[in-house]
Amino acid sequence: MEHCTEEEKKSVGRFLGRIIEGDCIEYSLVEFEDALKKTRYSDVSFLELMETYFGESLVSNQERREIEAEHICNFFEAASNAFKGNQAAQQWIEDAYECRDYGYTLILQQINKDTDGALELVKNIGNAVSYLHQQKENEYFHGMPIAVFAAKISGNPHYFDRNSISGRLLMYALCWDLYEEYPHSAMKWKERLSEAKVLSDNISSQVTVFGIHLYRKSGLHQGVEEFCQIREPLVLSTYNMKDVVRAAADDNEVFIVENEMVFDFLIESVHKEHKESVSIICTSGQLHSTAFDLIDLLAADHTIIHYSGDLDPEGMGIADRLWQRHPAQVSIWHMDVEDYKKSISHESINDKSITMLDSLQNDKLKITAEQIRISRLAGYQENLLQDLQKDVLKKKQHIY
């Protein structure tokens, strides 16, 4: 006690059995308990005295932490039990607790506010992750608008809005399932949703095309065909593709690149050389649902599909997934070891990304992956412009 009055010092001094000097009263817990034993309240403990004074049970900080830890443990155990038979959801919630990641902090915040509400939230997120995880094996599932998905899971079309707790927790869970980092920009947020086949809208899932012909049940898509006639690129969205039943490429062959600058360069080369029958697609990184829809239609039309991406784990993974989807139609284009050596940069690859190479199935990509593991440096398409250009202008089928 600081700035004590003379009366307060005398009262405490009589209780402790000593003179209090200065304007501050200090004493230890042991000294207080010893003094209490010399009074008529000697059979009352200090803890009992404090609990009587404050009117509630007192616990130490350590005991409080132990109680809180047990409560949190019981919550995650209950959540895990709720997901029995739902492997993806159960694994997510167990990993979140064990690793203190994948939305763990958000869940704790909700537990402190409303335990029952937190459990309901976690169940919804788990069910959402489980549903999307199952759709990975469904080649006919190309995505669901986020509002429709949110209504399906919770009944509320705004349940997974980006600024909501449920939307943020869903994103953490999706990043767990996709082995990706949590996005901190609107663009990356949309990309993560698209990777999980959740569409933020009918516009943002886009693919850029050049020399691609689309057909509806009624016949040729006249709007898209106009761009083919004037030899200009066109950005297609989910909305543009909704009634399309067939896609075709010039001379039954299409070149797909990941990078926008490479795409622009190839189109300019085509114009410069006055090539009239060349089809090129730019995916701008990860393949969104619109790109998958288009490529599926091209494959169904027996189109020869040459795919080239960045020579890093992410780019290799995209190429591999596309090849696995259509192994008879997709050829991996300029992604072998020699191409990697030409495209190599000074950009290092971290350990987490390196592990992504383990899942590759394509033989050519697996050989290149071994070189990437050794060098641990990324290779980029921009360093292969001349090689890509040469093939596009020559249009040799079955390029490897």
CATH architecture of the largest domain: 3-Layer(aba) Sandwich
Helix percentage range? 40-55%
Mean pLDDT value: 88
Strand residue content: 5-15%
Strand order of the largest sheet: 6-3-9-8-10-11
Number of individual domains: 3
State the CATH class of the largest domain. Alpha Beta
Low-pLDDT regions: 396-400
Explained architecture:
By secondary structure, the protein is of the alpha/beta class. It folds into three domains: 6-58, no CATH class; 62-199, no CATH class; 206-394, Dna Topoisomerase Vi A Subunit, Chain: A, domain 2, CATH 3.40.1360.10. Helices cover 53% and strands 12% of the residues. The chain contains 19 helices and 13 strands. The chain has helices at residues 6-16, 29-37, 46-54, 61-82, 87-99, 104-113, 115-135, 146-154, 165-178, 186-195, 222-230, 238-241, 260-272, 289-300, 313-325, 337-343, 351-354, 363-375, 385-394; strands spanning 144-145, 198-199, 206-210, 212-216, 219-220, 234-237, 244-249, 253-257, 280-282, 304-308, 330-332, 344-348, 377-379. Strands 6-3-9-8-10-11 form a six-stranded mixed sheet, sandwiched between helices. Helix 13 (260-272) links the parallel strand 8 (253-257) and strand 9 (280-282). Helix 5 packs across helix 7 (115-135), helix 6 packs antiparallel against helix 7 (115-135) and helix 9 crosses helix 10. It is elongated, with a radius of gyration of 32 Å.
